[in-house]
Write a structure and sequence with these properties.
The chain is mostly helical. Helices cover 47% and strands 11% of the residues. The protein contains 6 helices and 3 strands; from the N terminus they run ααβαββααα. The protein has a 3-stranded mixed β-sheet. It is globular and about 50 Å long. The two termini are 22 Å apart. 21% of the residues are buried.
């Protein structure tokens, strides 16, 4: 991707561009549906969220789906805002460095697909059709 160096980690905007490219690479039905979910890129998960989840180390959370899975939504549900997928830049970068054998784009895609799985209600077989890991 233009503007992203191998020696300097991508900033939040470049990271968001990689996440957008991962969405664009999804098969058509999933890609179209994924665009209905808000995407937030942050350095780390907010401290209150980490406390609520019982996570002490902010590097332990790379992504999060916040919303009601499509398999559980009802027309009776009161709107509470858009479903959101959060990707946490620093933990993903740390995992990327630790792995040494995967591209950053592939790792971002992997995390994104797993968060989309929560939204869509996908099982492991559904995930494997899109994410070959």
């Amino acid at each position: 991707m233009t503007g992203i160096s191998n020696s300097v980690p991508p900033d939040l905007d470049e990271f968001a561009a990689l996440a957008d490219a991962a969405i664009n690479a999804l098969p058509t039905p999933a890609r179209d549906a994924a665009r209905s979910v808000a995407l937030r890129i942050e350095e780390f998960a907010p401290n209150d969220l980490l406390r609520e989840m019982g996570i002490e180390n902010p590097f332990d959370l790379t992504g999060l789906y916040e919303g009601i899975p499509l398999t559980e939504k009802s027309v009776m549900d009161q709107p509470h805002g858009p479903d959101v997928i959060w990707l946490f830049r620093r933990p993903i970068l740390e995992e990327w460095i630790d792995r040494e054998n995967v591209t950053l784009s592939a790792l971002i895609s992997h995390v994104l697909v797993h968060e989309l799985a929560h939204h869509f209600g996908w099982d492991d077989q559904d995930i494997a059709k899109i994410d070959r890991w």
